[in-house]
Amino acid sequence: MIYLCNTLSLHMLPYLPCGKGKRVEIKRVSMKEASYMLQNNAFRSFFGHKKSVRHLSKYLQVSIPVCRGTIELREGDVLLVAAIQSKREWEQGLKGCPTWRFYTVQVVR
User: Fold this and answer.
1) CB–CB of 61/35 below 8 Å?
2) What is the pLDDT of residues 64-97, one digit of tens each?
3) Quick check: helix, strand or coil at residue 24?
4) Rounded to an integer, what distance in angstroms lies between the CA atom of residue 104 and that of residue 87?
5) Within 13 Å and on the Cβ side, how many CA atoms surround 102?
6) For position 66, what pLDDT does the model report?
7) Any idea which fold 2-9+19-108 has?
8) What does the domain layout of the chain look like in residue ranges?
9) 3-state DSSP assignment of residue 29
10) Sheet holding 23-29, edge to edge
11) Whole-structure pTM value
């Protein structure tokens, strides 16, 4: 499954008993790669802010629903993180549109 959200949290990782570990791979991807991934695959959005979703949908040219919830990543899942750069400037009206950076996150063996 592909999940789309604005951040990575340790709470998204599978349960880890004390003394055990999991490897997580984080990779920066381009806007074109992120757009292609969402346009050509089923995904679930966990973006909860309408204003951010409106800009991100236009930027990636894909319809993104507004939704909140919890995610637990499993092997094979991909978390696509769309992170706003200079968020405060955008929210304060100092920038017209947000700037985005994209990352994929996967739990690996």
Assistant:
1) yes
2) 999 888 899 988 999 999 988 765 555 555 556 6
3) strand
4) 20
5) 18
6) 93
7) Rossmann fold (3.40.50)
8) 2-9+19-108
9) strand
10) 23-29, 99-108, 78-85, 2-5, 43-45
11) 0.85
11: burial class by Cβ within 10 Å (0-12, 13-18, 19+)?
exposed
Question: Which of 106, 44, 101, 43 shows the shortest CA–CA distance to 78?
Answer: 106
Count Cα neighbours of 43 within 13 Å in the Cβ-side half-sphere: 25
Nearest-angstrom CA–CA distance, 50 and 44:
15
Inter-residue contact 93 to 17 (CB < 8 Å) = no
What would the pLDDT profile of 22-75 be if each residue is shown by its tens digit? 889 999 999 999 999 999 999 999 988 888 898 899 989 999 999 888 899 988
Q: Which pair of tokens denotes residue 65?
A: 């629903």
Instruction: Return d(Cα 96, Cα 93) in angstroms, integer.
Output: 7
d(CA 58, CA 56): 5
Name the token pair of 17. Answer: 């008993």
